[in-house]
Amino acid sequence: MELTKSMNAFSVNGKTYHLPDKAVVVICFDGCGDEYLDVALARDKMPNLKKMALRGYRGMVRGALPSFTNVNNTSIVTGVSPALHGICGNFFYDRERDQEIMMNSAEYLRTPTILAAAAKTGRKVAVITAKDKLRDILSHELEGIAFSAEKATEAREDTHGIAQVNKFIGLDTPPVYSAEASLFVLKAGVALLQQKKADFLYLSLTDYMQHKYAPEAAESLAFYQAIDTEFGRLLDLGAIVGITADHGMNAKQNPDGSPKVIYLGSLLEEKFGQGFRIICPITDPYVKHHGALGSYVVVYLPEGMAEAEVKTWLLQQPGITEVHGRDTSLHLLEQPGDRIGDLIVLSGRDTVLGKTPADHDLSALDSGLRSHGGRYEEMVPMAISHPLNTEYQAKAAGDPRNFDIFEFCLNGIAD
After folding, report:
1. Is the Cβ–Cβ distance between 41 and 49 less than 8 Å?
2. Quick one: which of 9, 81, 248, 373 is 20 to 30 A from 121 by CA?
3. Domain limits of the chain?
4. pLDDT tens digits for range 330-372
5. pLDDT tens for residues 3-24?
6. How far apart, in whole angstroms, are the C-alpha atoms of residue 223 and residue 226?
7. CATH number for the domain running over 16-249+374-411
8. pLDDT tens digits along 291-302
9. 67 contacts 373 by C-beta, under 8 angstroms
10. In whole angstroms, what is the distance from residue 48 CA to residue 347 CA?
């Protein structure tokens, strides 16, 4: 799909991006740890991804922490860390309002996006998400198309840049708790490319299947095979396709299959007394995914409480792997200082953190608990459909980030 460029480059958030003569499709494969791709490739379920890896590039990249959806999708579309763009969780404590609220509005975004900047060059930009919670942030100041699979029927020309999405794609709106939600996003992207309604696309999937199934499960393999078919259609349309993930996924369970949870609020109150505020940034409306339990929480200490004493004690507790104060969190974890608490606590690969048992209804979980948020879900795959030039081969061999993917797709393709 060859294009006529109205502008050759644009700059946003301190980076310059050079526009290619081809359509560009960046996919955030929500919850896709590299092990899912390894298993699917080993069982010949993803021939199109295999072609991408052989012709172009496949490797590992470091995501943003916490390894949650809103945080990393925002990093990908801005090209910078949470310290700059300000989205540090799905849920946070707003000190000014003295409220614990969802961070799913563009009012919390502190930087422009690559998508909005690309649209200003004349590119036909489209953002399609599985979960509607992301749409407002990702489409901030965008002159283009933006809709979700979850609420496709609500898309209107004046508010979403497109109407009658279901008729255009030829699909009914899928349940958000389904494999079809992610497939809908990809099929919509294919349709927009085919009809030349978009040539610069960001497609964000949902991690329902990874929350529910391990990589080797038959249902997971069937899902990855169906996803790969859509990858092939995008490639057949001549697009530069870049694929990465917002976070990985791990089983957070005891040997008997029960959720392995540290209820941090209960633990701290038992040891130090009341007055702690525990924020679980994974919290969102999709309770069947994770029950608001992840491997990263924020702690606000009671007034006068000694931070060092609490930090030292927490680090001695089984299952807790990291505890960072505010100053360390600004640099090591790349967090916005005014939107985090006194301590940030991370847990091990098989463990999640919560408030108290009463705060988490695990009855909504479809199956055993699989979740994310911490260090063990930080490393994710990246695949590029075209060969990399010398500069970006070197960059890929260093410490590439998942939020470098637009840079790789726009600046890193060999001539």
Report:
1. yes
2. 81
3. 16-249+374-411, 261-369
4. 999 999 999 999 999 999 999 999 999 888 777 666 567 899 9
5. 434 578 999 999 999 999 999 9
6. 5
7. 3.40.720.10
8. 689 999 999 999
9. yes
10. 36
Predicted local distance difference test score (pLDDT) of residue 226: 98
pTM of the model: 0.95
Question: pLDDT tens digits for 395-413?
Answer: 999 999 999 999 999 999 9
Half-sphere exposure of 190 (CA within 13 A, CB side): 19
The residue with tokens 């960072």 is: 324
According to CATH, the topology of domain 261-369 is Gyrase A; domain 2 (3.30.1360)
**Can you give the C-alpha Rg of the chain in angstroms?**
21
* CB 198 within 8 Å of CB 125: yes
pLDDT, one tens digit per residue, over 180-216 is 999 999 999 999 999 999 999 999 999 999 999 999 9
Q: Are 332 and 299 in contact (CB under 8 A)?
A: no
Give me 401's structure tokens: 């980030």
**Encoded tokens for 62:** 């470091």
